[in-house]
Amino acid sequence: QVQLQESGPGLVKPSQTLSLTCTVSGGSISSGGYYWSWIRQHPGKGLEWIGYIYYSGSTYYNPSLKSRVTISVDTSKNQFSLKLSSVTAADTAVYYCARDRAANAFDIWGQGTMVTVSS
Amino acid sequence: EIVLTQSPGTLSLSPGERATLSCRASQSVSSSYLAWYQQKPGQAPRLLIYGASSRATGIPDRFSGSGSGTDFTLTISRLEPEDFAVYYCQQYGSSPYSFGQGTKLEIK
């Protein structure tokens, strides 16, 4: 059974870079057929898709965040990562990673990790 | 970007009743790539429906999805106590993917 687990600092200072990692267990990130996404949810608000990566390294980012986002993959560790630069308080949110099964939508999600941007 | 508008914002019903949730897209959703998720407090969203009408693995048959183009519906035929939650629709046919703002289903 495939599981996803986010990890990273829960507190980031304004103007710094937020860095999170999603570890995939129970299956290989390189098996193909899946995209690996990051989604965030501001406190008490709805969901915002950040972007995805394929195991080959190809990416697509939400234009609203594109200038600050980098998603990368490390197939040897079965992980993919999110970097969001120049953060402000508006980036405070719960960050989720999810498996995007193309036609079958986001079928597996991590539990989410809360990131607060504050000095 | 496709904007999804969900209605109503809040739906108050009793267990055993039928719930009908709506999701309207600002433009046609490609290949009916429309999904529905359920989210309970403190939990990640859970996939209920994909491809507008296909139930995800393990989802009870009281949940059903319908629609195409710009208008989609999630129906819960007989509400169970565990169904009271927030529901989101999502389109994943066109990038950037987008979510609706959510419908809160609360106990009346």
Explain this structure to me?
The complex is a heterodimer of chains A (119) and B (108). Chain A has 119 residues and is mainly β. Chain A has no helices and 11 strands. Helices cover 0% and strands 52% of the residues of chain A. In chain A, the strands form 2 sheets. In chain A, strands 2, 4, 5, 6, 9, 10 and 11 form a 7-stranded mixed sheet that branches. In chain A, strands 1-3-8-7 form a 4-stranded antiparallel sheet, with no helix packed on it. Chain A starts with a strand and ends with a strand. With 108 residues, chain B is mainly β. Chain B contains no helices and 11 strands. In chain B, a hairpin with a 3-residue loop joins strand 5 and strand 6. The mean pLDDT of chain B is 96. At the A-B interface, strand 5 and strand 10 of A face strand 5 and strand 10 of B.
Can you give me a brief rundown of this structure?
Chain A is 0% helix and 52% strand. By secondary structure, chain A is mainly β.
Q: How is the secondary structure organized here?
A:
The complex is a heterodimer of chains A (119) and B (108).
Chain A: E1 3-7, E2 11-12, E3 18-25, E4 35-41, E5 47-54, E6 59-61, E7 69-74, E8 79-84, E9 93-100, E10 106-109, E11 113-117
Chain B: E1 4-7, E2 10-13, E3 19-25, E4 34-39, E5 46-50, E6 54-55, E7 63-68, E8 71-76, E9 86-91, E10 98-99, E11 103-107
Parallel strand pairs in B: 2-11
Antiparallel strand pairs in B: 1-3, 3-8, 4-5, 4-9, 5-6, 7-8, 9-10, 9-11
